[in-house]
Design a protein that fits this description.
The protein is α+β, with helices and mostly antiparallel strands and about 90 residues long. Helix 1 links the parallel strand 1 and strand 2. The longest helix has 15 residues.
Length: about 90
């Protein structure tokens, strides 16, 4: 965990819910990174994995893949959500 100053989890053609062994190992590793307070950035698959590993939910979009800017509404504030906001 101390080999890098920060970690980047990129996009993938896979879904975070696929039963691939490497995906489950990555999920556990994300929890280790979080427990060790390591800087971690997730992009697409990566941010879905971070959310899933840390207790959030992720689901396939009913309309399929999408790109661009999207606003989300926060349903429950968590202590790590700094700064707190109703919308992102």
């Amino acid at each position: 965990l101390d080999d890098c100053d920060a970690y980047l989890i990129t996009g993938s053609r896979h879904s975070v819910y696929e039963p691939e062994p490497w995906i489950r190992r990555l999920e556990a590793y994300v929890r280790e990174l979080h427990a060790a307070r390591k800087r971690t950035i997730g992009i697409c698959f990566g941010h879905q994995m971070m959310g899933l590993a840390l207790g959030g939910n992720s689901a396939r979009a009913p309309q399929g893949w999408g790109i661009g800017r999207h606003e989300v509404t926060v349903l429950a504030q968590e202590p790590w959500m700094v700064p707190a906001a109703a919308h992102y």
